[in-house]
Design a protein that fits this description.
Length: 335
């Protein structure tokens, strides 16, 4: 197969070898002749050692051997040939059978090169994404400012601008989420949680309304043991004299997450979680932004609740940051 993998130069004590770098698979590739140069042995020796490596089951040929297209000139004629290349694992296995000192030096060099390229690539990608994100956010600020202009006096025009800016902001957060680049946002310190009695009374009122409309049964929001009491207690705890969840955003995100994931009720855990989440924001004056609009609308809340419900527990911290970022961004004034 053809490849655009970069070619690096490895300089040993008495040899210079071209090495193909594969950042995607986090390895380097050499031909048999290059291995022969590296270890200063005849190519036949490399062939013999590779055969033994594979026959003994030390490595599998499928995972450590790949065809790369090589282009070279023979006189004035361009010649293209496929050459078998072997990964770093294969190179080291052969090296230990030939000259372990040379193999060790090469392994140290290859590991350093791989680490540098992978780290630089991740840093560049992150910087590029954040630069694009800042540019998008600046553009959205201009769009929002334009939406306030007297010249844009049609309801449809303002509505379109609002939809574009809101969806773009949500896309930005979800893109950061997908890329694993979400960080904790600037948050509002504090946040008062409801008492157990207050939370229970609010849920009972919700249950009565849903049952009356035929949208719930008597099992809805019925306590399973001390689950709700324990959950609220944990959210209000301190660690070394400091709140374990020090901000409105942190408390709200964990409240939503824990009710969904811990199943403190016999039925209706997702709906109860969404309700307690909204109730908490209302109690702390964070349900609406400075423009009087919901920080998270009904559709967004439903989607977020399902996203948390379907998420893997190992992704808990990322899910929490996603909710916190949505709350923090939704509360900022538009203008």
């Amino acid at each position: 197969m053809a490849s655009s993998s970069p070619i690096l130069i490895y300089e040993g004590e008495d040899s210079t070898v071209e090495v193909r770098l594969d950042k995607a698979q986090e390895t380097v590739w050499l031909t048999q002749s290059q291995m022969a140069e590296l270890f200063n042995v005849k190519p036949q020796n490399i062939t013999m050692h590779l055969k033994n490596v594979y026959q003994e089951g030390e490595l599998t040929e499928e995972s450590t051997c790949k065809d790369f297209l090589q282009v070279q000139f023979e006189g004035e004629r361009e010649v293209r040939r496929k050459r078998k290349h072997y990964s770093l694992d294969a190179v080291i296995s052969v090296g230990y059978r030939v000259s372990s000192a040379r193999a060790t030096r090469f392994r140290i060099w290859a590991t350093r090169v791989l680490r540098e390229h992978l780290t630089q690539g991740w840093t560049i990608n992150r910087e590029r994404f954040e630069t694009n994100a800042r540019e998008l956010e600046a553009a959205l600020a201009l769009v929002r400012k334009a939406a306030q202009s007297p010249e844009l006096d049609t309801t449809s025009g303002r509505g379109l601008v609002d939809i574009v800016s809101r969806y773009a902001q949500t896309f930005l957060l979800l893109q950061r989420y997908d890329e694993g680049l979400l960080t904790d946002p600037q948050a509002q310190a504090g946040g008062s949680l409801p008492s157990l009695a207050e939370a229970r009374a609010a849920l009972d009122n919700l249950k009565a309304e849903l049952v009356a409309r035929g949208e719930a049964t008597d099992l809805f929001a019925r306590d399973r043991g001390e689950g709700l009491a324990s959950l609220l207690g944990n959210l209000d705890q301190s660690v070394f004299g400091e709140p374990a969840y020090p901000s409105v955003e942190a408390k709200a995100a964990h409240l939503l997450y824990f009710v969904i994931k811990n199943h403190p009720f016999s039925d209706g855990n997702k709906r109860s979680a969404a309700f307690l989440f909204v109730d908490f924001l209302h109690r702390n004056g964070r349900l609406l932004n400075e423009s009087g609009e919901p920080v998270i609308n009904d559709v967004g809340l439903a989607a977020l609740t399902l996203l948390v419900a379907e998420s893997d527990p190992s992704n808990k911290d990322t899910m929490i940051r996603l909710v916190m970022n949505m709350l923090a961004n939704g509360s900022e004034p538009e203008g």
